[in-house]
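[audit] Reproducing an earlier prediction to check determinism. Same input, same settings, fresh worker. If the tokens differ from the archived copy the diff job will pick it up downstream; this log only records the rerun itself.
[audit] input (274 residues):
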Amino acid sequence: IDVVTVSDVMTVSHDLDISSWRDAGVALVAGLPQRKPRSWDHRVDVLPPTRPSVVAETPRLVAAAQVLRAEGTSGVELYNFAGEVESAPAFAVLRGVTAALAQPPTAQPRLFAVTARNYAPFEGRQEQVKALPAEFRDAGAWVNDTDGRWRAGAMGRWVGTLRVRGWAGHPPSETWTLRLGLRGTSRDPFDPSALSLSVVLNGSQLFVGPPRAVPGGAWQLLPDAGEPVATAWLQLPVPATFPVFEGDNTLTVFPLADAGTPFSLETVELLAAP
């Protein structure tokens, strides 16, 4: 075996462990599927018109390729990018992706993310356990366990790892924004402005308090698509002096008070924009 393509199953991954392949002494290629990971399961019986797109954005693909290159890959393989039908629009997307990957990473937006769970429980086990989604209810945080069930998070908090490359030495003109995608889990209307959150990155406080008090940040409310995906985004600017690491970064999120509305943390993203 001379070359191995390393990839998550059918989805773009930002935290794939390729150390065992790297130590095998073969050439490694980063496999980038067309589909982005998400925390909701396939539903073949219900396909509403408002169903969110599962196609990975170009900035997400560029960031994933950058992470895997730093991990030891020397090339990129694109999988399923022609789409279900080989059409002119599908190949236009493919040409756009390949052109973006050929440019220097800092010349374009990159979207790093915590890889969400993308498999449903099967016969009492979880094929692949991810850090998202997490539910905040009963004055605590609940995360996925290896048996596909919920377990209480340590100290009522959600703790995850965000793998980043390209922070060190990034241009001063570049802006970095941490984006938290939330969704209400009760039948009551979800009011994110009523929440009081603490967001800690690498042991340093990035944000604390009601989201409406974020200087330079804002809530972006989205329509309810009828699927368990984020319907509200909290966008937090990350100062250039903030302690962000090349590699794994530890992120902690927890509510400071019970707002009476249970919610879930569906997505965590870090966007770098020129």
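[audit] rerun output stored. Observation attached for the diff report: The CA atoms of residues 202 and 250 lie 5 Å apart.
[audit] end
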